[in-house]
Amino acid sequence: MLLRLETLTKRYRTGDLALTEVSLEIPAGQIVGLIGPSGAGKSTLIRCVNRLVEPTSGRVFLGKREITAMRGRALRRARRCMGMIFQEFALVERLSVMENVLTGRLGYVPFWRSFLRRFPQTDIDAAFALLDRVGLIEHADKRADALSGGQRQRVGIARALAQNPDLLLVDEPTASLDPKTSRQIMRLLREVCTERGLAAIVNIHDVALARQFVGRIIGLKAGRIVYDGAPDGLTPAILTRIYGEEDWGGEAHPSGPREATAAALTRDELVRAL
Ligand SMILES: Nc1ncnc2c1ncn2[C@@H]1O[C@H](COP(=O)(O)OP(=O)(O)OP(=O)(O)O)[C@@H](O)[C@H]1O
Hints:
GO terms for molecular function: ATP binding. Keywords: ATP-binding, Cell membrane, Membrane, Nucleotide-binding, Translocase, Transport. It is a peripheral membrane protein. Pfam families: ABC_tran. The protein is α/β, with parallel strands linked by helices. It has a domain at about 1-70 and about 170-175 and about 205-210 and about 215-274: 3-Layer(aba) Sandwich (Rossmann fold), CATH 3.40.50. It is built from eleven helices and ten strands. The protein has a six-stranded mixed β-sheet, with helices on both faces. It has a four-stranded antiparallel β-sheet with strand order 2-1-4-5. The radius of gyration is 19 Å and the shape is globular. Mean pLDDT is about 85; it is low at about 250-274. Bound molecules: adenosine-5'-triphosphate. The site of adenosine-5'-triphosphate (ATP) has 16 residues, from helix 1. The site of adenosine-5'-triphosphate has 16 residues, from helix 1.
């Protein structure tokens, strides 16, 4: 098993219980879509895996290594094996596309080299190959802020792959993209995972998109897993269990900005869209 979560619980200092005893296993090469209403705990779960968020209790294993038992250098080394891709791309705007991809290698190069941004030739060659793979080779020297949203997300994907990860942690990769670009990005993610045998957890608001591109769906509600199975098993009854009868904004963020994409659809509209 590539990734194993054992009774993972997260309570924030504010008292919010974001995850309650979540256990799951993901084999190498599997792409999992994580769905659920706003505040269900999707981002928290993804961030507990690489300990950007510190779990309150429970354990995380990557292969045989226990991530939750690591500190310092061992943790940094383990994090290299987990590439993150973010909703807002999180690129360094003033750097070139190529330099952004190379930042994926920072966990590997000595500090002085990263400070001077001097990377080994093998890293540079690999970064060119990745830019070619994601269709951006002719944009290598452009500044990141000169690209479109879809192109920026491709840089985000290339950067994560530059780490040579075993697992991708993907947080709402298409939240700020139009439907066609969203499909292209999901297709690219699926292709690169297949080519490299990578597993991925993709936190995704758009259930129809998830069904189209992932092999397994985990539904979270109020910090607990309420569905884990094939996309085809997401019946209207199960969607109601995940999202509730009301519109699927959820009570957790009554007016939070993050629910904008989700709250626009009611459950009935969602069921019709599938
Ligand atoms: N840094 C934090 N401090 C305190 N509470 C937090 C923090 N981050 C998240 N929470 C709370 O934890 C719960 C789960 O939030 P999380 O962001 O993981 O959900 P989500 O499913 O990713 O939601 P969304 O789809 O809106 O991003 C919510 O009640 C949220 O308010």
